[in-house]
Amino acid sequence: MNNGPLRGVRILDLTSVLMGPYATQILGDYGADVIKIEPPGGDNVRNIGPSRHPNMAGVFLHANRNKRSVVLDLKRPAGREALLKLAANADVLIYNVRPQAMARLGLGYEDVRAANPRIVYVGVYGYGQRGPYAARPAYDDLIQGAVGIPTLSTLAGADVPRYAPNAMADRIVGISAVGAVTSALFHRERTGEGQSIEVPMFETMAQFVLGDHMYGHTFDPPAGPAGYARLLNVFRRPYQTLDGHLCVMVYNDKQWRTFFELIGKPEVMDADPRFNSIAARTENIRELYRMLAGIIATRTTAEWQEVLEAADIPVMPMHTIESLMDDPHLRAVGFLETVEHPSEGPMRSMAVPSNWSVTQPGIARHAPRLGQHSAEVLREAGYSDAQIDALSAQGATFLGN
Q1: Which residues is 350 bridged to in the sheet?
Q2: Phi, psi angles (nearest 5°) of residue 120
Q3: How many other CB atoms sit within 10 Å of the CB of residue 127?
Q4: Is 170 a catalytic residue?
Q5: CA 146 → CA 66, 133, 349, distances in Å?
Q6: What residues contact 29, with CB distance under 8 A and at least 6 apart?
Q7: Which of 272, 335, 321, 261 is closest to 295 using CA atoms?
Q8: How sure is the predictor about 365, in pLDDT bands with cuts at 50, 70 and 90?
Q9: What's the rounded Cα separation, in Å, for the pair 352 and 335?
Q10: CA 305, 308, 312, 314 torsion: positive or negative?
Q11: pLDDT digit string (tens) for 102-154?
């Protein structure tokens, strides 16, 4: 049993790949009953990367726990009818195809609202529907490029434009969708009103990027250049030591004063006007970080970590993916544990990262096999076993194995 804060909320999850499934997994972790509606072939991400069995790859396992899998062919009238029956008793329907595709299926907001006027109907897709990009397809790489992330990488010193090596847009927009769903549910609790919501990737990520980098162009006319100089500094990177790399963040006046004292140059903060305030340091950040890089290179990683931690100057090791999974802090808080998946055997599972004093979210279900819960959920919607068998024979559902 998951006693999280959304216990009792039922969510129809028509999403696939990563952005939507990541959002609905968080909602499932928070206690919602998430019913993952999959086409007969299943979510494409089921087969991306290593797996022990077909349809159960690692990326899928980490984005689809706390869900029940129901296969419905929504292009068949019987599949669409089943979806609307499920919607009649759901609190939320969330999807991440283009709205035009939902309309073609007869599952636009007005169609679903007719089955359940209180439904919270959430579209998580590429572009807001009031602009010229409305009908365009969108993927993480396209959105990263559209909001300038590869350009930022070259301004910060990359040899060629590069995407961030994470599905960053998918995950950031997925988290934004969680906020939209929970806020709409709160509104409905107070008013009884359902509503339709769009969470567009492009606009969400434009806000994410411009919040840092609109910078001087915040003002009209501009009061300075676009681009936050500290973030775009070519020397803002893990610093090379005598035997490795270290992540160091000397930021405020107190930390810089302490750092210059540590290296035997206490006079710098008062004597050099380039570095004696945060405004001055920001203006001269390239030279400051270049100097810091040269200083860090004179000692070993362990030596710097010891002295900086003792001086309360922020410092962290530079992990690899493998060493991150063995981090002592993550071990101490139980972030990673080995669990026994019913079909996939032993696997590493990540804990819910937040801690709650009363309604602690948790993990009640492992990621489901394709169609594992089709019969169970259809029975809950009022279908008899004979009707479920008929849906299966028509190809409108798949009952798993």
Answers
A1: 336
A2: -95, 115
A3: 21
A4: yes
A5: 33, 11, 33
A6: 2, 4, 65, 66, 352, 361, 362, 363
A7: 261
A8: very high
A9: 8
A10: negative
A11: 999 999 999 999 999 999 999 999 999 999 999 999 999 999 999 999 999 99
Measure the N-to-C terminal CA separation of the chain; round to a whole number of Å.
24
Bridge partners, residue 11, by sequence? 34, 92
Helix-, strand-, coil-residue percentages of the chain, each rounded to 5: 40, 15, 45
For residues 372-378, give the mean pLDDT: 98
- Tell me the two tokens of residue 243: 């035997």
List, by residue range, all CATH 3.40.50.10540 domains of the chain. 10-208+331-398
How large is the C-alpha radius of gyration of the chain? 25
Using the CB atoms, write b or e for 371-387: b if 16+ within 10 Å. Answer: bbbbbebbebbebeeee
Pull the structure tokens for residue 327. 């981090």
Q: Which of 29, 170, 270, 272 is catalytic?
A: 170
pLDDT grade, residue 209 (50/70/90)?
Answer: very high
**What stretch(es) of the chain map to CATH 3.30.1540.10?**
239-317
Q: Strand (E) positions, 114-218? A: 120-125, 195-200
pLDDT tens sequence across 276-292: 899 999 999 999 999 99
Give pTM, 2 decimals: 0.95
Provide the CATH number for the domain formed by 10-208+331-398 in this structure. 3.40.50.10540
Q: What is the DSSP string of 365-397?
A: SPPPPTTTTHHHHHHHTT--HHHHHHHHHHTSE
Residue with tokens 């089921």: 46
339, β-bridge pairs? 347
Q: In sequence order, what are the residues at sequence separation of 6 or more whose Cβ sits closer than 8 angstroms to the Cβ of residue 19? A: 96, 124, 140, 167, 169, 170, 171, 173, 174, 177, 201
Domain spanning 239-317: CATH superfamily: formyl-coa transferase, domain 3 (3.30.1540.10)
